[in-house]
């Protein structure tokens, strides 16, 4: 599919990219999505696995929940534990994450060499 490049289509493309970055941009959101693609995690597990402080993790997860990417479940345990999982909507980012993983592997080979 070929789209003609006009000032209007370029503006729409920039807005779409900006919207995407507003939702998944920053240092942590894509890392958290990648971890959660392998299954639900408790808050402390996510913090350890991602290497992120609890304060920052809490902020990131709130934003991701607000955007419909993760669900939060309070478990009936003592002490109370909270689990996070991807929502069906987050599956719409799978192609983006796969493409980023592929590009990152290529880039690593180009810059560092090896496999």
Describe what you observe in this structure.
The protein is of the alpha+beta class. The protein has a single domain, classed as Arc Repressor Mutant, subunit A. The chain has 5 helices and 3 strands, in the order ααβααββα. It has a 3-stranded antiparallel sheet with strand order 1-3-2. A hairpin with a 5-residue loop joins strand 2 and strand 3. The protein is globular, with a radius of gyration of 17 Å. The mean pLDDT is 92.
Number of DSSP-assigned strands: 3
CATH superfamily: Winged helix-like DNA-binding domain superfamily/Winged helix DNA-binding domain
Which descriptor suits the 3D outline? globular
Poorly predicted runs are none
Give the amount of beta strand, in percent.
5-15%
The CATH level-2 architecture is identified as Orthogonal Bundle
Helix percent reads 55-70%
Question: In DSSP terms, counting alpha (H) and pi (I) runs of 4 or more, how many helices?
Answer: 5
Q: In CATH terms, what is the fold-level topology?
A: Arc Repressor Mutant, subunit A
Mean pLDDT: 92
Major sheet attributes: 3 strands, antiparallel
Structural class comes to: alpha+beta
CATH class value: Mainly Alpha
How many structural domains? 1
């Amino acid at each position: 599919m070929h789209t003609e490049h006009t000032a209007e289509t370029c503006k729409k493309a920039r807005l779409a990219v900006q919207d995407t970055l507003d939702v998944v941009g920053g240092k942590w959101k894509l890392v958290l999505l990648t971890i959660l693609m392998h299954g639900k995690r408790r808050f402390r597990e996510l913090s350890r696995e991602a290497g992120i402080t609890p304060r920052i993790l809490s902020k990131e997860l709130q934003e991701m929940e607000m955007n419909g990417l993760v669900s939060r479940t309070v478990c009936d345990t003592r002490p109370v534990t909270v689990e996070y999982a991807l929502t069906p909507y987050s599956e719409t980012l799978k192609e983006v994450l796969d493409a980023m993983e592929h590009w990152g592997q290529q880039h690593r080979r180009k810059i560092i060499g090896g496999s």
